[in-house]
């Protein structure tokens, strides 16, 4: 039987790691697929252990420097059919939550959990090959060119020192090429450190949220049209309300609203306000888990006004890959459904 199994697993499509999650109160089993760019050729199967990706039940691990030599990974959640992406409509008093272990992610790393308005079936009905990526920086590949843009919601971009969540709506519906539409590329981001709450998030018990230990991130989407994106945390059985910083000496904010974005200097209009983000979310977004570093560090997330890290070459990809090759993130217990408490 063992021999037969190996024979078939080589003959047919790759064995995508399975992941259980909760969708409207019911347990579902989906599959992880890595983005097309991680494949040697467009149709090549991927060995997930070789790219540092593994799952167990509801838990998913991503590693920085992997046995294959690939650096990090960008993954999507396929539904139970394994041929379409799972879609999440994040509007109308619903919440999205997960547990995360950030303890092994130093300055310069970015472990991101985010959603994008990709097509459910990928580029050409080939979602099982991780195709059809798009984002608010137009980094989706079509025919070998980075051109495809779409609305993006960064529920989580973080390492153990810094965290932000950010809306990136676009002027168009679905996907578009650069030039025929635009997206709010800087986005409206909530980073409490930036607005003076420097003791909220960090790697010791002196922070409100201690990133040396696992915690739950709950994000709530209020109204349809969307009016507010709220956040709270749970750690060690305790509910931790979001930070509530005084933004530019104007008002305190603990969530993303048009008022917050305006105070933060983003001047929301009909293309960039939270309702515009909500219109895209209502059409359904694909879930992406990403672990990455950058040649220039992650200063926009964790250095200068954004966080306590040095930024620049001290946190560059080369430094991290040499000094922290085993950096990894563990996501678990993804849940989506009606708001459980407000
Ligand atoms: C997959 O990659 C792992 C880690 O590099 C390796 O040990 C294993 O032999 C590979 N499996 C196959 C089928 O190539």
UniProtKB/TrEMBL annotation:
It catalyses: Hydrolysis of (1->4)-beta-D-glucosidic linkages in cellulose and cellotetraose, releasing cellobiose from the non-reducing ends of the chains. One of its GO terms (biological process) is cellulose catabolic process. InterPro entries: ConA-like_dom_sf (IPR013320), Glyco_hydro_7 (IPR001722), Glyco_hydro_7_sf (IPR037019). Residues 1-15 form the signal peptide. GO terms for molecular function: cellulose 1,4-beta-cellobiosidase activity. The keyword Signal applies. The keyword DNA-binding does not apply. It comes from the Eukaryota. Its EC number is 3.2.1.91. SUPFAM superfamilies: Concanavalin A-like lectins/glucanases. It is an enzyme of class 3 (hydrolase). Keywords: Carbohydrate metabolism, Cellulose degradation, Glycosidase, Hydrolase, Polysaccharide degradation, Signal. It holds the Pfam family Glyco_hydro_7. Belongs to the glycosyl hydrolase 7 (cellulase C) family. This is cellulose 1,4-beta-cellobiosidase (non-reducing end). It comes from uncultured symbiotic protist of Reticulitermes speratus.
């Amino acid at each position: 039987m063992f021999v037969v199994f190996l024979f078939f697993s080589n003959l047919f499509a790759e064995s995508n790691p399975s992941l259980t999650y909760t969708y409207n109160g019911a347990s579902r089993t989906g599959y992880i697929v890595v983005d097309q760019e991680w494949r040697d050729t467009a149709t090549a199967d991927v060995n997930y252990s070789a790219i540092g990706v593994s799952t167990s039940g509801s838990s998913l691990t991503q590693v920085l420097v992997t046995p294959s030599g690939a650096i990090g990974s960008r993954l999507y959640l396929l539904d139970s059919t394994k041929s379409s992406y799972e879609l999440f409509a994040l509007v109308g008093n619903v919440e999205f939550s997960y547990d995360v272990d950030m303890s092994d992610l130093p300055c310069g790393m970015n472990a991101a959990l985010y959603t994008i308005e990709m097509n459910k079936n990928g580029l050409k009905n080939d979602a099982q090959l991780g195709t059809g990526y798009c984002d608010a920086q137009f980094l989706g590949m079509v025919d070998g060119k980075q051109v495809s843009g779409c609305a993006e919601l960064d529920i989580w971009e973080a390492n153990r020192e810094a965290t932000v969540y950010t809306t990136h709506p676009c002027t168009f519906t679905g996907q578009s090429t650069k030039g025929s539409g635009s997206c709010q590329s800087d986005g409206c981001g909530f980073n409490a450190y930036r607005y003076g709450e420097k003791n909220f998030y960090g790697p010791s018990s002196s922070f409100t949220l201690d990133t040396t230990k696992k915690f739950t991130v709950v994000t709530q989407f209020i109204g349809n049209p969307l009016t507010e994106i709220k956040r709270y945390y749970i750690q060690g059985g305790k509910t931790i309300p979001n930070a509530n910083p005084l933004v530019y000496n104007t008002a305190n904010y603990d969530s993303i609203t048009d008022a917050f974005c305006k105070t933060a200097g983003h001047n929301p209009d009909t293309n960039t306000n939270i309702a515009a983000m909500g219109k895209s979310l209502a059409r359904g977004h694909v879930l992406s888990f990403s672990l990455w570093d950058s040649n220039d560090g992650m200063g926009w997330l964790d250095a200068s006004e954004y966080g306590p890290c040095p930024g620049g070459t001290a946190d560059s990809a080369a430094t991290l890959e040499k000094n922290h090759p085993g950096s990894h993130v563990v996501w678990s217990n993804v849940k989506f459904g009606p708001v459980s408490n407000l």
